[in-house]
Amino acid sequence: MASETPALVIGERQPASLRQRIKDARLPWVPIVILLTIVFCAVFANLISPHEPRKNNVHNKLQAPFVSVEHPLGTDRLGKDMLSRLIYGSRTMLQVTAPSMVVAIIAGTVVGLVSGYSGRWVDSILMRITDAVLGFPSILVALLIVTYLGTGVWNVMIAIAATQWARFARMLRGEVLVIRDRDFVVLAQIYGVSPGMIVWRHLFPNIINTLMVLTSVSIGQVILLEASLSFLGLGLAPGDPAWGILVSEGREFLTQAWWIALFPGLVITVVVMAFNFFGDWLRDYLDPRLRRAG
Amino acid sequence: MTAYIIRRIGEGLITLIALSFVVFGSVHLTGDPARFLLPISAEHDESVYEAQKAAYGLDKPFIVQYWNFLIKAVRLDFGNSFTARRPVQEILLERIPATVHLAIAGTILAIGIGVPLGIISAVKRDTILDRICKAFAIFGMAAPQFWVAIMLIIVFAGYWGWLPGYGRGDITGWFPAWNQIPNMLAHLILPASVLALAIIAAIMRLARSAMLEVLDSDYVKFAQVKGMSDRVVIWRHAARNALIPVITFGGISLAGLLNGSVVVEVVFAWPGVGLMLLEGVLSNNFPQVEGAIMVSGAAYILTALVVDILYGYADPRVRMN
Amino acid sequence: MELKRFMNVRLLATFGLAAGMITTVACSGASEAPAAPAPATPAAVTAPASSGSDSAAPTAMPAATEPAAMAESAGGHVNLLVTNIGNGKFDPLLTEGEDLKFQRIFQVALVGGAGGSELVPAVAKDWSVSEDGKIWTFTVNDGFIKAHDGNVITRDDVYFNLNSRVGAEAFELLDSGYYEPRDVALANLIEGVSKGPGDDQVQVNFKTVRLDFAFNWSENSQGASPMIVPEATMRERAGETGFEGYETDPVGIGSMKVEDFVLEQKYSFEKFDDFFWTTENGFSEDRSVTFDTLTIEVVPEPAGRLAALRSGDAQLIEANINMIGDIDSIDGASIAWQKESSYNWVVYVDCWQEELWCFPVEARQAAEHAINKDDIVNGLYSPESVNADSWAHVTPNSLGWGENLRPRAFDLDKSYELLKSIGYGGANGDDGTDANGEQISFTIYTWEAGDLPLLPDLAQMYKDFWTDGLGWDVNVSVGDAAATRQAWNNREYPGDLLVRTNEGRYDGTSITQGGYLNESIAWRAVDNWQNEPWASNTTPVVQKGLSDLNPDTRSASYNAMYEYLQDQTYWGDGFNTNVPWGLGADVASYEPWRLVPYVTAIWTLKLK
User: Fold this and answer.
1) CA B34 to CA B58: how far, in whole Å?
2) Whole-number pLDDT of residue C151
3) Do residues C601 and C593 touch, judged by C-beta distance below 8 A?
4) How far apart are CA A53 and CA A57, in angstroms?
């Protein structure tokens, strides 16, 4: 939920050593470690994964996990190494979510700021478009793109960006509506500061906290969206090492090879949980009033 | 206030028209349905192809097609489904009840589980129980719906055979006969649970913070001072007041569920609008896709409209803007 | 929080209004259709008994009336779960492929089938084609075939069925708007349908040679259009433009009658006691079902179908080869293989263009020799699920198959030799270059298909064989089926490969005709097409092969033609897949037909 409290201005805080500040922040170590691990896996996937994620080895298929050192998490229906596919899955996830989120955040922020500050018909038009996008199932956006451009990482990214910006725009606009009536903005207007300057110098810094919280909370949802699209066959191509596709492949083997669907599902859950926990912590940290409220 | 409502309704209408343009435009960019519809033996027969195109009015300029679509859509007439060859309206009328049932069941379940969890977590703040409730809620929000759905099917419908794992049972339309209700509920449990899981966390959190605030309030303290037992204070006085924001949120999330149930409907073969939409999309069935999206989009926009108007009612500042 | 500002009543109003609005949107359509009774009492609505019902009304979907009573039936109930069910139409001409899942349960085709090649008497007791291959004559089993509504099939009924689907009446129904142009594609090729010459005969007169018509109108074919319905039944159900009433009250002559249905979702059938196909009526086998009721329902999710089979809720499920391990793990469950129901079709696209790497036939042959079929059959699939004895659509039980069509052996030396002979592959034939010394590079296009699983992985294996063995630079592109087909149609893949699936068939005449005689079809494989299409080498061979009208020598002629075409390798060696059906613990046996990927031979399903 959008908070009405303005962001803390850096100067207000008591100067403290970095170590002290980290200690005070009560960082959520478990989620942070999980997220760093995932990022590490994604960046160095080609170095740390024991096998090629797309390489079939039909003489070694459906091998159970925790049995051999060569395939610690077992193999799939074609002898592909599950661990390698999961590791590469984190790379796929990051490749899809990171750029699309950046685009969505920039677009959403611009729309939110412009809409909230301008008001009147600009606001009306932008918010109607935002509402229309929010009412448009992301799955259809994805399919339109897939049909038009073919399957692949790019198209899921476009689909995510095309649907996610609206959430940012809606949320930030609400924030701006509150801030723009505050004294410092009104004073700046009276002093004749240009609207562009007001938006950039006075409004934007005050929505950064909301933006950060919203981002960390949204990433989890975006990961789920990407996985769902892949599961429905509307996203990445079958055979690509993406977590949603792994679950989809595993559903025909639930009895004979439970590990194919179970591991990727768990990984998605854990990663999304880590993002959500981190987002919660970030919100509490940036907005102590909420922390007090529990 | 009246002016605000009128303006807001006007905006809602504009949003709907924008949605219709986006839907119609993008659906028509995806390809030529007349080509897909031809039997393989006639795939190369241009005369059949042209005739087929003309039969669907696809030979007309885009803007004419859009206009025809728009004036019919006003009457909720989206034309005939290309594959089923019957009015999309008719299919929608069969499918909407299923989706609405599922969304309502999901919301009720989410409130039914989320609120007690939230209250427990508030009353037993910072205990192990609080943490377990929180962890469960956060897990529910993070676990992918399709994955949870499959796992539930394999366990509850497969190994134990307690609950049906597909379909809607014997019910069609809005209202079951009395003797159909048990069957209907049995079919609802698994899909509604999966839908509910995603919003339990939000409801629980809302209930928890509302409860904490109420517990902090003077009248609860007064009641405690009066010597009423904790149980009575919590359940009779505090919980009742904490419930209010939760129910509002439930109403809002209901609209979201109507749109967001595609995955659940597909996995559970639930004959709702989401499944209809995916079927239409996969078979290039333009009218079916357009109908499904316009109706769910309209439901969403209308809900947003109502919520906004009520917000405006409560907070004059919003109205002035 | 803003939410807290709300008063009790307003909050509840929000909730109520949100739900109310949605409901209003949902319901408002009902008032637009004046003929429609309000859908408020669906449980009480039954199917309109006769003609003239408005198909726009929601009552077109008769609600489940007494499902409980039906399920309790004593002689056994079969619950059949399938992946999809097509467009849900009952009119045989309006149904699409997947509908055969239920069409064959309550209807019977003009000519009978036995799975694969054999055609047997059904509604027609005899059929023959004239010497010029243009006039087909059907002799009707007149006077004892009863439909579910008591009407009896006569010669005139068969004439009506043919005439209204491929004859003059089809065009009337097109003009009235009942049919669409796509429905009369076959009718366009027909001169006319006539009664005679005998009292029990009907003739179909084609504009051109048409040798597979009896097959097309048999139970062995892919389409639903050969299903026979009494004329009186259809006429009673006439609506504004055509036979709209039939969709709400379908009647057939099959072993089960339609009891109840929810369109596109669920269909219930009940045993028909007056079924004609029995030994008493002189048929060699009794095709009456051995159970009382059957429900067929769409469950796209494989885990859902498996769970239903495990819990005993379903007796028969549509499966795929990935699921056989899970079916095996269920106590008492078993698998029935539907043989040769689809085949993989490898197309070397547009290789008649001289500038492409695949223009020399040796290059294509070398590619085939570099594929280890054993690895594909035993590793990727399993010996019971696929059979690598076929070329393109010519599978072991189809017309024209012979030992000579078995795939070429895995032999890399042979590949190198072939490549060297055309100056490819450098000194040893293995460095992956073409005659100009440039790296050979192309893409394999494919998609994920329900009837032939693992196509993307198959393409990946082809890639591995060619990359590792021949040094070619190969990409695999897995796309959406419709989009890929469209791009292929638009000639966007010259020099690439398409690895796709297609339904198995006994008679490959039309697909061969399309591929090798018609230059406008995307899957054509006509050599020398660009310059002088009809002066190509392939064309005369195909024309000669397809022109053999003699039933005794036809198979041999086809075989000779296919042998030549296999050698040309515009289409690669393939294999056919056997599709598994999962049988529940209470099912004793089921023997689906080969070469037809739908629900077939339901009378062979025996409950324990």
Assistant:
1) 8
2) 93
3) yes
4) 11
CA nearest to B318, candidates A41, C555, C89, A119: A119
CB B298 within 8 A of CB C25: yes
Inter-chain residue contact C32 with B92, CB threshold 8 Å: no
The dihedrals phi and psi of C89, each to the nearest 5 degrees, come to: -80, 150
Residues 417-476 of C with CB under 8 A from B: none
C contact residues 346-405, partner A, Cβ 8 Å cutoff: 375, 378-380
Spatial CA neighbour of A83 closest among A39, A32, A48, A58 = A48
Pairwise CB contact (< 8 Å): B38 & C182 = yes
The predicted pLDDT at position C593 comes to 87
Per-block average pLDDT, block size 10, for chain A (294 residues)? 43 62 78 92 90 79 85 85 92 90 93 86 84 69 61 76 88 84 83 83 84 85 87 77 89 86 92 88 71 40
Six-digit token string for C94: 């309006």
Taking one residue from A and the other from C, the number of pairs with CB-CB distance under 8 angstroms is 73
Describe the crossing of helices C481-489 and A138-149 by its angle, rounded to 10 degrees. Answer: 30
For chain B, the residue count is 321
For B137, the token pair is: 């809620």
Number of alpha carbons in the 13 Å side-chain half-sphere of residue B176: 18
In this complex, the residue of B142, B151, B281 whose CB is nearest that of residue A272 is B142
Between chains, do A140 and B300 touch, taking CB under 8 Å as contact?
no
Cα B153 to Cα B146: distance, rounded to the nearest angstrom: 11
Question: d(Cα B212, Cα B208) in Å, to the nearest integer?
Answer: 6
How do strand C573-583 and strand C334-348 relate by DSSP bridges? antiparallel
Alpha-carbon distance values, C526 to C209, C409, C513, C532, C541 (Å):
21, 25, 11, 10, 11
Other beta carbons within 10 Å of B229: 11
Q: For residue C58, say if its preceding peptide bond is cis, omega within 30 degrees of 0.
A: no
What is the least distance, in Å, from the CA of A11 to any CA of chain B? 30
Q: Which of C198, C223, C278 is nearest to C89 (CA)?
A: C223
Q: Are the Cβ atoms of C483 and A150 closer than 8 angstroms?
A: yes
Q: Which residues of C touch A62 (CB under 8 A)?
A: 325
Q: Inform me whether the C-beta atom of residue C19 falls under 8 Å from chain B C-beta atoms.
A: yes
Inter-residue contact C251 to C147 (CB < 8 Å)? yes
Interface contact A265-B151, CB threshold 8 A: yes
Which run of H or of E encompasses C192?
strand C190-195
Distance of CA C395 to the CA centre of its chain: 16
Whole-number pLDDT of residue B318: 53
In whole angstroms, give the CA distance from residue A123 to residue A128: 8
Cα dihedral: C274, C275, C279, C285 (round 10): -160
DSSP string, B112-154: HHHHHHHHHHHHTTTSHHHHHHHHHHHHHHHS-HHHHHHHHII
Joined together, the tokens standing for residue C194 give 């006539």
Q: Whole-angstrom Cα distance, residue C316 to residue C336?
A: 10
- Distance, CA of B191 to CA of B184 (rounded, Å): 12
DSSP secondary structure letter of residue C30: G
Sheet holding C135-140, edge to edge: C124-129, C135-140, C201-206, C190-195
Mean of pLDDT values over B277-286:
80
- Report CB contact under 8 Å: A238, C448: yes
- CA–CA dist B266, B254 (Å, integer): 19
Which residue in chain B is spatially nearest to A291 when comparing CA positions? B209
Apex CA A194: angle with CA A193 and CA A195, to 5°? 115
Write out the H or E segment, with its range, that includes residue C332: none
Q: How far is residue C43 from each of residues B170, B184, C53, C515, measured CA to CA in Å?
A: 10, 13, 19, 52
Partner A contacted by C448 (CB < 8 A): yes
Mark out the alpha helices in C290-351 (DSSP H runs): 302-311, 324-328
Q: How distant is the Cα of C320 from the closest Cα of chain B, in angstroms?
A: 17
